[in-house]
Structure formats: structure tokens, C-alpha cells
Backbone:
């Protein structure tokens, strides 16, 4: 992504608290709200940077828009995944 003001490449960083891939727009993470100190860029290409939309698991909280990570926790709200009972 190119910066609108200077035209330089802007690289996403990983928030050290919630692990979200965010743009470095300030000193606070816009996902979790905590001060981030991460400076390590997130890989955009390759298996780690790709989102597999076909195999994602959506958060079981009906009000949340997050997806469940490999630990079984929502990446947005932090709630553990609870499968629907049948």
C-alpha cells in the first residue's frame, strides 16, 4: 500500500498484544486499543499472509465479525469458539 502523503510503501505490522495485522497509523492498535510497539512487518505473500476464505471459521458470537484462529479463539473479540449444538 502506498502512503497518500509521501508516496512511500507502507507495510503492515503485527500488534504485540492481539496479534492483528495493522497499518502503523499511530501508537495505538485500532483493533484492541492498546499501545503497540511492534515494528516487524507482516508477510503479505505466501501461505502465512494469505487468507483461506473457504476454510475459515467465523466467531460463534452473533454480534462479532471475527474469525477463529488456530488456538480456537476469535481474533477480534477473544472469545473461545463454541460450535452450534444440533
Residues:
Amino acid at each position: 500500500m502506498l502512503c497518500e502523503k509521501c508516496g512511500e510503501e507502507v507495510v503492515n505490522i503485527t500488534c504485540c498484544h492481539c496479534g492483528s495485522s495493522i497499518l502503523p497509523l499511530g501508537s495505538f492498535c485500532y483493533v484492541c486499543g492498546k499501545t503497540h510497539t511492534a515494528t516487524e512487518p507482516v508477510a503479505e505473500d505466501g501461505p502465512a499472509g494469505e487468507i483461506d476464505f473457504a476454510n475459515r471459521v467465523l466467531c460463534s458470537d452473533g454480534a462479532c465479525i471475527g474469525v477463529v484462529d488456530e488456538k480456537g479463539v476469535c481474533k477480534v473479540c477473544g472469545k473461545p469458539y463454541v460450535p452450534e449444538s444440533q
Summary: The mean pLDDT is 75. Strands lie at 13-14, 21-22.
